[in-house]
Design goal:
This protein has helices spanning 7-10, 14-43, 47-57, 65-72, 76-88, 110-130, 136-147; strands spanning 63-64, 92-97, 100-108. It is built from seven helices and three strands, in the order H-H-H-E-H-H-E-E-H-H. The chain has a three-stranded antiparallel beta sheet. Helix 2 crosses helix 6 (110-130), helix 3 crosses helix 6 and helix 4 packs across helix 5. By secondary structure, it is mainly alpha-helical.
């Protein structure tokens, strides 16, 4: 009879790895909640809007909608609604790409750059507060360990 291995039989470290994964999820939840609350209460914004502005801030010449979707790892449909609202708020502009009627380039407006700069500064402050109990060596170690996750992907 072919017996199925139980998770504990997979490795002596499997339970510990599971606990690490659960702690990573909890840490992400704590940080995500703080950032979402801060963006909503201090800036009247959402995390997806912040993410779009951040991606465009890193690409001053703009991105095609398909590139923006790929960078954010979401569907074009998810990005389209956010882009529509950000454009109607005057924070981004859409520019037609010559020779490709189907493609649109999106980029920050000067107002979008200013608005994002304020949001980004607050975001950095929130993260700094959350992680303030860790010293430089601990942060360096955490960063190095977490960087190894998914290296082979």
């Amino acid at each position: 009879m072919n017996e199925m291995k139980t998770p504990a039989a997979l490795s002596p470290l499997s339970k510990q790895r599971l606990r690490v994964w659960l702690r990573l999820l909890r840490a992400h939840q704590v940080i995500d909640t703080r950032v979402r609350e801060g963006l909503r209460s201090d800036h009247g914004s959402t995390l997806p809007r912040f993410d779009v502005l951040a991606a465009l801030d890193r690409h001053p010449d703009g991105l095609r909608m398909s590139e923006l979707s790929a960078k954010l790892r979401v569907s074009n449909g998810n990005v389209t609604g956010i882009v529509e609202r950000l454009a109607s708020d005057g924070l981004i502009e859409r520019v037609a790409i010559q020779g490709d009627r189907r493609a649109t380039l999106v980029r920050l407006t000067p107002a979008g750059k200013d608005r994002f700069a304020g949001m980004a500064a607050e975001h950095e402050r929130w993260i700094d507060e959350i992680l303030s109990d860790y010293d430089e060596d601990e942060l360096r170690t955490m960063n190095a360990l977490l960087a190894r996750i998914g290296e082979d992907d």
